[in-house]
Design brief:
Elements (H helix, E strand, L loop, with lengths): L26 E6 L9 H17 L3 E6 L2 H7 E3 L5 H12 L4 E6 L6 E5 L8 H12 L8 H23 L5 E7 H13 L4 E7 L3 H8 L13 H7 L3 H13 L2 E4 L2 H10 L6 E2 L13 H21 L11 E7 L9 H17 L5 E7 L4 E4 L1 H33 L6 H4 L2 H13 L11 E3 L6 H9 L9 E6 L14 H7 L2 E3 L9 H8 L4 E4 L3 H9 L7 E2 L14
Parallel strand pairs: 1-2, 1-6, 2-5, 6-7, 7-8, 8-9, 10-11, 10-15, 11-14, 15-16, 16-17
Antiparallel strand pairs: 3-4, 4-5, 12-13
């Protein structure tokens, strides 16, 4: 989706024109992002879903570059020796110079090569590199911003990697470096500052200032042309991050973003119009029949029901067959992601269900990672009690079945009154007593580090949804990404989505929005808004009465002040 080309940066030399024709096999693509093999937000999904096609097109000359996170590498990456001799010499040279660089295959579809940089190993260079950044680029990074410090280390190590690769090549290589977001953007700025012969692409998936302004309850879209950008960034103590992001956008040979609404935002906040809008995509699995969606939904729903049985033990006074599972998921940004709107809607829904004496129960899941120190003891106990009840039922069933079998063997109908003896009743009574509970089922599945100031928990306290027996709407806050290895809810995110009935994403700030897109391809209904990139895309391209996009009150005009 090309836009009118904006002026490229011409004041920085170093990129020779590629006028001569060359074989694509001679070109090398480095894709650089903080979320390579490191799930933080949506960029992880962006890279993961396009890795197979990119690897097929570029073959052995496609390398993803990201940070080394040991816990992720143990489960996601197969470490191997580099097959590219130039890259092997590059990594060996850097490792002998005080760096720690790892090479391997990311165990996702397509198995792309990954170069993982241990930024902590070179933390001793941080002060030197920050001084160099200030002297050469005029960007100062405060000591207390750990994320920005990581971006400095990652940026300098990335440009070191690219520069060393050029130095180790017998002939000048044709290198394309694609940088995602501000965390990787400093590497792009340094490529231009050091005049490396590298073609650079910068993709912003959201703007820093836009995210912060929307979270601050300002009328963002109607005032987008009026903000004093330097002052707003300074007031929020992100001026240094904003400088890195804006410098990357202006230094890139090609600047792209993921949706039309973010393109407008980038033009006003970063002062450069994107050259292209590249909407995010998903690998859609083709099903041979509709009933496959139904079968997968039924299987996943049963697993969620098992979790609910344990979570609400002692208060399971509702019919699970008349229970609807709703969810919201994503980065924990309370108002940006629409969690405030969702909670308010749940409070009103609870009132309507109660006054109409409905027998339907709604369970709303909030899957948003936050700071915790462990699982909630009461939540773990619930799953243990559920398992104990299941084991008890299996034991009694086996004893019952054995007596039934022996009775039928001798040709007699069983005496039902003798099929269960006193020991069986004792076992069952003990199991029932174990389900007694003196407190309400917990709202949160984990122990929150900042419980008193947590926005979701504070809103729940305000609206009074405490999972009581009288409430027809129940809330479960799971402040951690879902995983099939979790002892609490052992499901991958995809399985969980398939088991739900509705995804609710009333976002105020959502540059794209993978969550409703994932629901769509999995056959699960979802609610989106016209302030999300995906919502705008659906509104523009899908002429289907079954597709409804929630209209936000402060939707931006197509041209906030001046036309493109």
């Amino acid at each position: 989706m090309p836009l009118a080309r904006s002026l490229s940066v011409t004041s920085l030399s170093g990129m020779e024109d590629w006028d001569e024709e060359f074989d694509l096999e001679d070109a090398v693509l480095f894709e650089i992002a903080w979320e390579v093999a490191n799930k933080v937000g949506g960029i992880y999904t962006v890279i993961q879903t396009k890795a197979r096609l990119t690897a097929e097109e570029w073959g052995e000359n496609y390398f993803l570059v990201g940070p080394y996170v040991e816990s992720n590498v143990r489960t996601q990456v197969e470490l191997i020796e580099p097959t590219n001799p130039v890259l092997k010499r590059t990594i060996d040279k850097m490792n002998s110079s005080g760096c720690k660089i790892y090479f391997g295959r990311w165990l996702i579809e397509g198995s792309p090569y990954v170069i993982l940089i241990d930024v902590a190993y070179t933390a001793w260079s941080l002060d030197t590199w920050k001084s160099e950044l200030w002297e050469n680029c005029g960007i100062g990074v405060p000591w207390f911003d750990r994320e920005a410090n990581d971006s400095v280390l990652f940026g300098f190590l990335t440009v070191w990697l690219l520069g060393e690769y050029i130095a180790q090549s017998a002939e000048p290589p044709h290198i394309v470096a694609h940088f995602h977001e501000w965390l990787a953007g400093l590497g792009l700025v340094l490529c231009r500052q050091r005049q490396l012969s590298v073609a650079t692409v910068f993709t912003t998936h959201a703007t820093l200032l836009g995210r912060y302004l929307c979270a601050g309850n300002v009328d963002f879209y109607n005032r987008i042309s009026e903000f004093n950008l330097d002052k707003e960034a300074g007031d929020r103590q992100i001026y240094h991050r904003y400088c890195i992001e804006r410098a990357a956008a202006h230094c890139a040979h090609v600047f792209t973003t993921v949706s039309q609404i973010t393109a407008i935002e980038a033009e006003y906040l970063l002062k450069r119009k994107p050259d292209f809008v590249t909407p995010n995509g998903l690998n859609v699995k083709k099903f041979s029949a509709v009933h496959e969606f139904q079968n997968l939904h039924a299987q996943s729903k049963n697993r969620i029901q098992e979790f609910v049985r344990g979570h609400f033990y002692g208060h399971l006074d509702f019919n699970l067959d008349k229970c609807l599972f709703l969810f919201i998921a994503g980065r924990y940004e309370f108002s940006n992601k629409g969690a405030d709107v969702f909670l308010e809607a749940l409070a009103r829904l609870n009132y309507l269900l109660r006054v109409n004496h409905s027998d339907v129960t709604v369970i709303a899941f909030f899957i948003m990672p936050a700071r915790t120190n462990n699982f909630n003891v009461e939540t773990l106990k619930g799953q243990a009690v559920r398992k104990q009840l299941w084991d008890t039922a299996q034991t009694v069933k086996e004893r019952f079945g054995k007596k039934l079998y022996e009775s039928l063997l001798v040709g007699q109908l069983p005496d039902v009154s003798k099929m269960l003896d006193k020991e069986d009743f004792t076992i069952m009574k003990r199991a029932i007593f174990a389900t007694q509970r003196q407190c309400q089922p917990p709202i949160c599945t984990h122990n929150m580090l900042e419980d008193s100031s947590d926005p979701i928990l504070n809103c729940v306290r305000r609206i009074g949804l405490f999972n009581s027996s009288a409430d027809r709407v129940k809330i479960i806050f799971h402040p951690e990404f879902l995983s099939s290895t979790s002892p609490l809810l052992p499901m991958d995110y995809e399985e969980f989505v398939r088991g739900c009935h509705l995804g609710v994403f009333p976002s105020y700030y959502e540059p794209w929005g993978y969550t409703p897109a994932e629901c769509t391809v999995m056959g699960i209904p979802s609610v989106s808004t016209n302030l999300s990139g995906f919502g705008c895309f659906m509104e523009e391209h899908i002429a289907d009465p079954s597709a409804y996009v929630l209209q936000a009150e402060s939707a931006p005009a197509d041209h906030p002040e001046e036309p493109y």
